[in-house]
Hints:
Helix content is 71%, strand content 1%. It has 14 helices and two strands, in the order H-H-H-H-H-H-H-E-E-H-H-H-H-H-H-H. The N and C termini lie far apart (44 Å).
Amino acid sequence: MPLLASRIRNIVSETTTPLRREVDPRFTDRERQPGLDLLRALAIVVVVIYHAALFGFKLPGRVDRFGWIGVDLFFVLSGYLIGGQLLAPLARNRPIDLRRFFARRVLRIIPAYFVILAVYAFLPSWREYPEISPLWKFVVSVQNIGLHGGTAFSHAWSLAVEDQFYLLLPLILILVSRWPHARFIIPCVIVLGGIVLRAFLAWQNLTETGVSFRGFQTWIYYPTWTRLDPLVFGVVLVAIEKFRPQWWRRLMNLAPWLLLPGLALIVYALYLGEGDYLSIAASIWQFPLIALGMAALLVCAVSPRLFLRRVKIPGAAFIASIAYSAYLIQKLVIHFVGQFCSSHNIALTSVPALLLVEICVYAAATILFLAVERPFLQLRHRVAPRA
């Protein structure tokens, strides 16, 4: 009997463990990294809080106004993770499999994105704003060009930035693999060029009361060419990990000393943007300083010398898994919850309203993830598995 009971326990363990992992098919054949899960979960939480505040769900002290930096954290994470997928074969002296890479990207991004885009296109009464950019811009991922706030589905601008970057990144890495000196030149050109370009655009949109906010939005905040810093820093970090193991070990050992300076850089960058008007200094330096601070946090998240890599925060892995769905669907849900609260005389700044909007966003994201994202991730696992 003890032997039979032991065999039954082993069978149950073998059958249930894969099922638990397959909630997110991306982790059927690899372990999750608690530190990266925590950063991704934190990024989506602060972004949702920021966007909810735009519709009246404001927090005390207006701390929600800083939530936009969650997008920069997403960018650093994306640069590190997707850059790692492309650099891994090069580190083994193998070519980049472009067909597999783009197949995996399409199956990861397109299905849920087009479901939400269809809602915006065919159900205009559901939109958070009546106006929306031309649909063809969303289809070809250039909706961030010439964009201004106050339009429906405008938060998809960051997806366009990533799409454009990952179309170019494989080509850049192929060039780098054939011309080694470019590995140092290209990142420097992108980062320094972004600083120069932001300075020029800030001067072009200067008014008597500082940089025009509408001009800042349209020409500095949303366009790809001024928002590449965090993506580049993410790719640089994973390049060090793959090709300079000694440098990477030093970074891992330095991680305990990078946490506070990284946070200090982010705080200082946010301080630059405080005031009654938008300064030229903030327009130029906020993004690279925040990107550098976020890169330091990423190093801290993956370093074995800090607890972030080892300690699993309850719920962080699940929130990280549904983060993409939450990002897509958030404004639709916030809009509906705002209408519900108004019709039931619930103050948007009350605790019940704030809890309701958060719960509804993640509940809707869970449904979108399970109904759309997960099946296509399973398909991706079958037709374009990781190398």
